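seq as requested:
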Amino acid sequence: MPFAGLRVLSLESRRAKEMEALIRKEGGDSFVAPSVQERALDDSSEALRFVERLEAGEFDMVICMTGAGLAFLRVQVVAHASAARLGAALGRVTIVSRGPKPLPLLRELGIRAQIVVPEPNTWKEIVEAVAARPERRIAVQEYGRPNLEMNNALQQLGASVTPIVLYRWELPTDVEPLQMAARGLAQRRFDVVLFTSSIQLDHLMMVAKALGLELQVSSALREYTAIASVGPVMTASLEAAALPVEIVPLHPKMGALVKAASEGAAAILAQKRGH
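struct tokens:
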């Protein structure tokens, strides 16, 4: 098999079991260290206020950034109102889906997305998709942290942008696997690292710093370990941290990432380690 027993680290959280299975299918020795937990805000008032503002006609477009955000929205609204009310409110506006992940939840609410943003589903594709549209009162269902670049770009098009904050990214409750990942990288025990979200890198380095291993982890990533990035947003984050991006799949999907890494890792490691 392509990985041929290489030690492969993933920091995947929500789809950790799927990632582990994909790595093993390609012959890798998998270690998956969940690095993120998505936590809904304790106060559901913003979700309810969002529904009221939709009903009042304050928005004419909603950009759905993640399926997780829609799920949190539905849970928070249904605790006080009904899913039918949420669906009716969303049905008043143009819906933009960042890729396919929000679509199943929209369908459950009886809503069709008028615009589905194509791969690689970055904020740049979103701005391009809505640039020629007439709607300019835009609500953005955020993911785990604000996307200021996208919001600024939309405002430059003349749009008013209202972030809808429903959840945040945090360190997992159990950080021991992530600590083990940082120690393993520092000791150069991993051959390949797979990154699917920029917050994974942030949390890995946060934990490494807390352990006093930040320099060793960075050094291992630069000099010893093959780095695979799922797509352009992740690649930009790695490059901003002065880390080399050596493997990027043609399509920004988890399965494609694992496949590309399994096929390219051996050559990258031979070049990187000088043998």
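The chain has two domains: 7-36+172-273, 39-169.
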